[in-house]
Amino acid sequence: MSDIALEKAETTSAPGTTRRGFSFGPLALGLLLPLSLAVILEIGVAKGFFQGRLAPPPSKIAVTLGELISTGEWFRHAYATGWRVALGFAFGASAGILFGTLSGAVPFVRRLIDPTVQALRAVPSIAWVPLFILWFGIFETSKITLIAVGVFFPVYLGVLGAVLSIDRKVIEVGRVFRLSKLELGRRIMLPATLPALVTSLRAGLGLGWMFVVAAEIMGASEGLGFLLVDGQQVGRPDLIVSAIISFAFLGFLTDALLARATAPFLRWRDDLSTSERG
User: Fold this and answer.
1) CB contact at 8 A, 154 and 96
2) I need a labelling partner for 48 at 20 to 30 A (CA). Which of 32, 132, 157, 199 fits?
3) Is residue 155 part of a domain?
4) In this predicted model, what pLDDT tens digit does every residue of 6-26 receive, in sequence order?
């Protein structure tokens, strides 16, 4: 069979089918480790190797999650945490993109603000809590601000590094073709920085989910962080683990949604697999 015939056979699909189907192989492989640990813990508690009071078996955690979901309490806490992360991510990512771009494109701005940003980046998240409570009170503003701070730093660093790494020869080629500053940014600088921007946004989103725990320790009456504190106060490790699993699930889900949403903007990359291209 000729090369042309082979290419035609590979690109032709049956009616009603698509070439890109969902594969359960990677999902099954990703679930192998947590499911194995869950089975080991379940058997260990049943055989008396672990104390069920301190290390709740997966069956008890499943019952706790089921109760939270059936009563609607899980959705209430997940919604409260989710919209805090969404607002904090929106504000922090916007500020990170703005200041990262300015610092990368304008040397004076970089020399002015980058040392301060690098110093503040080393401050632990919990250290901001008393200051934000003093400034903004104990309600939502302080929580969202704390999350935005956590998101800001990885986005700023990612955008700054991406702008600084743009090949100046490519920019000179654009100038040779008499591209305006707007066209230069849209046709050269934006595509060159998009991969790093997407990576930094995903890193910032992950830190947003981490910072929301510290934010909800400020005194929230609802949220998954509140469930963590409540489980610790009443001595219920099953409730604590249920909240941790919920954080892991929502963090994974939002990261996957972000990766899916940004995939169309990266179709031109040669190093992306078919599934990553969407």
Assistant:
1) yes
2) 32
3) yes
4) 344 444 444 444 444 445 566
HSE-CB at 204 with a 13 A cutoff on CA atoms is 33
Q: What is the DSSP letter of 167?
A: -
The answer to whether residue 36 sits within a structural domain is no
Pairwise pLDDT comparison (85 vs 127), residue with the higher score: 85
The CA distance from 270 to 277, in Å, is 10
User: Which CATH number fits the domain that encloses residue 194?
Assistant: 1.10.3720.10
For residues 126 and 149, is the Cβ–Cβ distance under 8 A? no
d(CA 171, CA 181): 10
Among 113, 79, 221, 97, which residue's Cα sits nearest to residue 157?
97
For the chain, the domain total comes to 1
203: domain range? 58-263
Mean pLDDT in the chain?
A: 80
pLDDT digits (tens, 9 = 90+) for 60-117: 888 999 999 999 999 999 999 999 999 999 999 999 999 998 898 888 999 999 999 9
